[in-house]
Structure formats: structure tokens, C-alpha cells
Design brief:
mainly beta; Jelly Rolls; 25 strands; 50% strand; seven-stranded antiparallel sheet
Length: 303
């Protein structure tokens, strides 16, 4: 077994998308090889309705898959194929845009006026860029959760982990998408396939992710609940951690525990031609998509 080193850590950056939704972007619209097959990751978390109610009105997608995971509040969605629905707390939607779709996502928040969720973009390989669009809507109650003896909780959204398999399947990037909570003072190791690119995104509490260059990962400075915990090098709220190669990720939870997403996928290693929500392999394909948007032929008829 080999511990994955930390390639980098950085905070998500405040930005604005859609019709004026304030969110934090962990990565996106930069180097597409950085976390191949993943292209973008947004954390849309707000306590003020005026910061999210304008939503994400009608916009196109082609050549990618989008994964929306809602923690708090609701999101109403609709598309050019006639699909519509509402995502609630704990629900997941995996949309394969494929050959092209127009859709909208309108956050409505909770009864307390709060909204929190994540959206991840996964690239499609060239052979599937023009596949037929499809949806997988999953209720939170259908997502398995495993609880270990030390209190560690793992929701298995996609992929297999600790004997459970997530309900979302057939995804091109063959990802693993886990929502993990490690209690205060607990040190925990999670296995990740050696051949996958992997990252963690901390969104609650804090923890120290061990690095292969330092076998203990960090300098341990105090005890919480009888366990040694680093207090000098904790990764906290809205921190992205990208890992190098290896088959294990280790985290030492801080004094309030740590909750994070652990996401990995098989890299495509294909050229990327990218313009906003349209991701193709060549500039010519991208120009074709833009021309089709202008002349009204972007959406293929259903077969």
C-alpha cells in the first residue's frame, strides 16, 4: 500500500454564475489536465436568498456530464427534452448532456432561506461526446451510508466502498464519489484506486491530510479526546486537496471532526476544446456546436 502525496491545497474562490448566484469555485476554466476527467467543481452555499434565487436560467451543455448534490434547500430543474423536477436535501442528479441539451436550475432554498449544494463537471470521452442525453435522479434515502465502529460515516453516491455500491451508474469517467464524515480526533485511511485521479473537498470542520513525504503527515501538537491532532496544518472549510499517485488517502480529523467529499475518476487523456458549458475535443467541433446554437439545430431529435 502507498500513501498518496498531496500535490496541492488551495481555497475555493468566490465567483458569480448564472443570473447572479454567488458561489465558491474549487477549480474550473483553467488547466483541464489538472484533475482529468473532472473539469469544474462549484460549492453553492448561501444563507441569503438574494444571493441564489436568480438561479441558472436556460443554458446549453454538450460533451460533458454534470453531477449536482444538494445538502440543504431545494433546486427546481427543467430541460429542452421536457424533463422537470425538484432536488431536495440529500438528493443527487447526474445529467449526461451528450449531444446537447438546454436546461435550467433554479435554487429555491430551505424554509430557513438557506441553500447548499455542489456541482461537478465530468468530461465525456470523444466516443461519447454525441451520445443521447439522459438523467439519473436519485433520492437521498436511496444513497447507502456506512458507519464504521469509530463513528466514521461514508455516503456512497457513486462507485463501491466498504461493501456498498452507490445508486448512480454507467458514468463514463467511472468515478467514485463519497461524502465522508470523520469524528473529532479520529485518524482514518481510505483506499483509492491507484489509476484514478483523486481530490478531496473539505466543507465542514477541519482535518490534516497526510503526505507521503512525511509519514505522520503533520506535526502533532495536542490531544483531543485522547488522540493526537495536528492544529498547525488543518485543511478547513472550502479547501481543495489534490492527491498524487498511490492507493490510500489518510486524514486526521480536527477538534470538530471533518466532513469532505472524496472524488476520483479514470483520466481520459484526450484533447479538450472548451467554451463555457460546451466541451469538445477539437476547435472545429466547438465551432460546429456554437453555429448550431445560433441556427437552432443544437438539440438532436430523440430516436
Amino acid at each position: 500500500m502507498s500513501l498518496r502525496p498531496i500535490s496541492f491545497q488551495r481555497k475555493a474562490v468566490p465567483t458569480m454564475e448564472g443570473a447572479g448566484v454567488k458561489l465558491h469555485r474549487a477549480f474550473g476554466f483553467q488547466d483541464p489536465t489538472e484533475l482529468d476527467p473532472f473539469l469544474l467543481f462549484d460549492d453553492f452555499r448561501n444563507d441569503r436568498p438574494q444571493d441564489f434565487l436568480a438561479g441558472f436560467p436556460w443554458h446549453p451543455h454538450r460533451g460533458i456530464e454534470t453531477i449536482t448534490y444538494v445538502l440543504d434547500g431545494t433546486v427546481e430543474h427543467g430541460d429542452s427534452l421536457g424533463n422537470s423536477g425538484t432536488l431536495g436535501a440529500g438528493d443527487v442528479q447526474w445529467m449526461t448532456a451528450g449531444s446537447g441539451i438546454l436546461h435550467q436550475e433554479m435554487p429555491k432554498g430551505s424554509t430557513e432561506g438557506k441553500m447548499h449544494g455542489f456541482q461537478l463537471w465530468a468530461n465525456l470521452p470523444s466516443r461519447l461526446k454525441m451520445t443521447a442525453p439522459r438523467y439519473q435522479d436519485v433520492k437521498g434515502a436511496d444513497i447507502p451510508e456506512v458507519i464504521d465502529d469509530d463513528g466514521t460515516r461514508v455516503k456512497v453516491i457513486v462507485g463501491s466502498f466498504w461493501g456498498q455500491t452507490g445508486p448512480v451508474d454507467g458514468i463514463a469517467a467511472d468515478p467514485q464519489y463519497l461524502d465522508i464524515h470523520v469524528p473529532a480526533g479520529v485518524k482514518k485511511t481510505f483506499k483509492v484506486d491507484t489509476y484514478r485521479r483523486a481530490f478531496a473537498y473539505v466543507f465542514q470542520g477541519a482535518g490534516a491530510f497526510a503526505d507521503a513525504s512525511s509519514p505522520t503527515g503533520v506535526l502533532l501538537e495536542k490531544e483531543v479526546g485522547g488522540a493526537e491532532v495536528n492544529i498547525r496544518d488543518l485543511s478547513g472549510n472550502r479547501t481543495l486537496i489534490r492527491f498524487g499517485t498511490g492507493d490510500e488517502v489518510t486524514v486526521q480529523a480536527g477538534p470538530d471532526g471533518v466532513r469532505f467529499l472524496l472524488i476520483s475518476g479514470a483520466p481520459l487523456q484526450e484533447p479538450v476544446a472548451w467554451h463555457g458549458p460546451i466541451v469538445m475535443n477539437t476547435r472545429e467541433e466547438l465551432m460546429t456546436a456554437m453555429a448550431e446554437l445560433r441556427n437552432g439545430t443544437f438539440i438532436r431529435p430523440a430516436h
